[in-house]
């Protein structure tokens, strides 16, 4: 981040997200989305300074040298600043390899242990910030960062969130309020016709008794989305993820992250 503000080639574009012309009804950059605007309204003290950095986190695992089927896996963790224009924030040179989590096996729930140092650093940048030099204005300022979103596939999402994608409660939206049922012959959970409850109350598909499920009218209204505070309270009740059982160690065991 310091290099982006120190370079004359990028320092002016670090505030592009706040100054570019938006076309109503179209989205060409994450800053055009309603989620971005909601964040600005919620955290006005952060949004008032366009020099603050919005980040995206991406991570995924792969087998080295194409050795599929073997146990060794490698997990790169990449951060991308969304302050830059559309053509740059998705380009290779602005995707920063923050850490590499080595194998030898799939991380599963232990991914939180490896990410602990990165999360701690992101929290410090959010609460306190870091002193930065702006080469365009020839002055220093306190830069803060916010992790706006994450990009990953479903298996990685399951590992990072701790919520399974299989079984009775495999839906991350419905969670405990699911209506999934078990197929006796197929021996699998089925989520068929669980989606109509999200439609508006007057939608014609709710009253359709033939096209989806015979002789069934959908009257249920989907439960409201859980807030971040509610999800945080649930997570705080869980035990910490460690590499060895807590019964074998009196201290919280962490990994040495490879940078």
UniProtKB/TrEMBL annotation:
InterPro entries: Transposase_21. Pfam families: Transposase_21. It comes from the Eukaryota. This is Uncharacterized protein.
């Amino acid at each position: 981040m310091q290099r982006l503000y120190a370079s004359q080639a990028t320092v002016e574009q670090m505030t592009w997200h706040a100054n570019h012309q938006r076309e109503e009804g179209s989205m060409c950059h994450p800053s055009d989305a309603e989620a971005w605007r909601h964040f600005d309204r919620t955290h006005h003290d952060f949004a008032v300074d366009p020099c603050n950095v919005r980040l995206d986190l991406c991570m995924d695992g792969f087998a080295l040298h194409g050795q599929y089927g073997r146990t060794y896996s490698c997990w790169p963790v990449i951060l991308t600043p969304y302050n830059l224009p559309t053509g740059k924030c998705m380009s290779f040179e602005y995707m920063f390899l923050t850490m590499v989590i080595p194998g030898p096996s799939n991380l599963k729930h232990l991914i939180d242990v490896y990410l602990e140092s990165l999360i701690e650093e992101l929290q410090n940048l959010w609460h306190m910030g870091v002193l930065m030099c702006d080469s365009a204005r020839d002055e220093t300022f306190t830069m803060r960062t916010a992790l706006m979103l994450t990009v990953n596939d479903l298996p990685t999402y399951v590992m990072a969130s701790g919520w399974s994608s299989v079984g009775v409660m495999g839906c991350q939206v419905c969670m405990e309020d699911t209506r999934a049922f078990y197929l006796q012959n197929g021996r699998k959970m089925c989520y068929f016709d669980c989606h109509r409850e999200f439609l508006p109350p007057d939608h014609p598909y709710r009253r359709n008794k033939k096209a989806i499920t015979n002789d069934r009218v959908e009257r249920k209204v989907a439960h409201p989305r859980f807030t971040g505070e509610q999800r945080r309270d649930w997570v705080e009740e869980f035990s910490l993820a460690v590499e060895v059982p807590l019964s074998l160690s009196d201290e919280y065991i962490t990994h040495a992250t490879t940078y």
